[in-house]
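Quick question, first post here. What does this chain look like in 3D?
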Amino acid sequence: VFDSKFEMQAYDLFCKFLGKKYFERSPKYELQPGFRDSNGKAIRAISYVGDFLINYNGVEYLVDTKGMETPVFKMKEKMLLYVHKKSIHKLKSKKKVLAFIEQIKQ
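> Answer (accepted):
Ran it through. Tokens below.
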């Protein structure tokens, strides 16, 4: 199950030009652990779930297929960079997916 038609198209392109062994779907990163507040109420953890984690020639690329960047996405992107030192490659079109594939294969 994909979150969007574009994510499914990106998956198909990654399979075709990279092969399934080079990527995984829906990598999850904890940005803030869950905790209990002063009243004992459970506060859920904050996580970021990317679309793909590509590991090609020993280099990792975290990829998100985004049409529009929401304020929540922008906040999580900053937290991901701070906590995990990972940048997100945001691909917004089929053309950008193909260019990205060509770039990492060089």
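The chain is about 35% helix and 30% strand.
The chain has a mean pLDDT of 96.
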